[in-house]
Amino acid sequence: MGTSTSNPGPFDRQPLLPSWALPPDTGNDAESNDGENESPDNGDQQDNSPLPTPPVTWQMAKASMSRFASTGERNSLSRAGRDYVGAKGGRRAAAQAASTGKSVALKVGGFLSTVASAGIRTALDEIGLGHMVGRSAPEVLAALIDVLAPAGATLQEAAARKAADDVLEKLYEDYIAKTGDVTALESLDKDGITNAIEASIAGYIYNLWLDELGLSIETKAISPLQAVGLERDVRVYVRERVRLELGEQDPVSIDWNGPAGRNIIDTVFQEAYGFLEVEQ
After folding, report:
1. What is the pLDDT of residues 243-280, one digit of tens each?
2. Of 2, 23, 169, 188, which residue is 20 to 30 A from 195 by alpha carbon distance?
3. Of 117, 104, 125, nearest to 250 (Cα)?
């Protein structure tokens, strides 16, 4: 996550702003029009329509997050979340741009549901890792992370891989560590799979938030305590949204490669960014 804090942000390019948000033209072109573009005289009539709200820029989002880092106040974090999602174009745009994070969540759901229903051998075979059957847990997990979230150069790919890595680490601690055998994952139940899906989504959103704003614990732009609090808030809300979307459905029975699975993940991502977009 060690992105430089001097990075102006991935989308702060002035030509993308609407015309009213661009710097005023200080030249003399307007004077040479000889009044051709002047509005007709409407007497005392005034335009009382509200002015459009200026867009949130990445500089504003970084400033809000820096304010939270310096104060640690809850309302500062809330404002930081709102400005961050605003800089991404709003909840819908943010969710639509999260294709890498969605892909990881769907792969996690699909793989683990197959493990629970058909066993680790079948699950590995279905994702092209049949040759890893019988190998040590570290070897299997190392191969699995490359399938779930291949290494890449973009912030989105880095955030997705970190989220997937955290999911596998948690699964190792909870299921595999005692025996060292990946077949222990076959004991996964509804809650275990749901927790893994939640973690993949929340981890992606949290990691990308810090990365896109150029913040990291390593550079001391945000303290470990603040990072833990931020991650906790995101995870708590995402957990609620995932469970709400799943309802009484068993994640094992959901086709995570089909419309049902995609609709669940799409909704959770949009609702999660919507939560950040609204100041609490």
Report:
1. 888 888 899 999 999 999 999 999 999 999 998 888 55
2. 2
3. 117
What's the rounded Cα separation, in Å, for the pair 196 and 145?
Answer: 14
Q: What is the CA radius of gyration of the chain?
A: 23
Choice between 200 and 3, residue whose per-residue pLDDT is larger: 200
Per-residue tokens: 116: 């629970």
Separation between Cα atoms, residue 225 and residue 217, nearest integer Å: 10
Buried b / exposed e over 219-239, threshold 16 CB at 10 Å, is eebbeeebbebbbebbbebbb
Residue 113's CB: how many other CB atoms inside 10 A?
Answer: 24
The model's pTM: 0.76
Domain ranges of the chain: 99-271
Cα 154 from chain centroid?
Answer: 13
pLDDT at 236: 82
CA distance 234 to 192: 19
| Average pLDDT, integer, range 66-81 | 81
Q: Measured between alpha carbons, how far is 146 from 91 in angstroms, rounded to an integer?
A: 29
